[in-house]
Amino acid sequence: MDTDTKDRLTRADWLAHGLRTLARHGANALKVGDLAAGLDVSRGSFYWHFKDATDFRTQLLQLWKERVTEQVFRDIDAAIVGPARLTHLMKLAFNEDRSLDRAIRELAATDPAAAEMVAAVDARRVEYLSKLMIESGVESRHARPRAEFLYWAYIGQTAVMNPALNAVTESDIDDLSALFTRAGG
What we know:
Elements: H1 3-7, H2 11-25, H3 32-39, H4 43-49, H5 53-79, H6 84-95, H7 99-108, H8 112-135, H9 140-157, H10 163-166, H11 170-181
Helix pairs in contact: 2-5, 2-7, 5-8, 6-11, 7-8, 8-9
């Protein structure tokens, strides 16, 4: 990185680098010295933008939540209407790279603040799935359990080690979406 780039490094640059590092190398790679070396800057640059490593992790988790939950929901709500929202969300979710999500969940296993954020994101995602199901005609009393079950499948998919068993085609998602939005009990 040239000197001009180093001088213009922003908090957003640090956070983007932190998310990439977390996704690629896990939570143990979130050490200030390693992050600074990855950006070819001094540790002082880190402390210019963040009070400490805890502040950095807190902001990193907020950015993760915004990008992979709230922004996704806003984009879907703005672009799609009706039952197609659920199918679109499922296609996005089941076919995305979830290395960052896995790394965040690993961090949450040992970091109470991360665990609290992950729990809040999980609740928000299930709430949104429930809303989409209700909009698709599912009775309220059935929407929440279906949303939870679908979310468990989403979370569990990454734990399946055999790639032949964790691939989901667009046709499969269309079928699943129809199954989860049937209004009956």
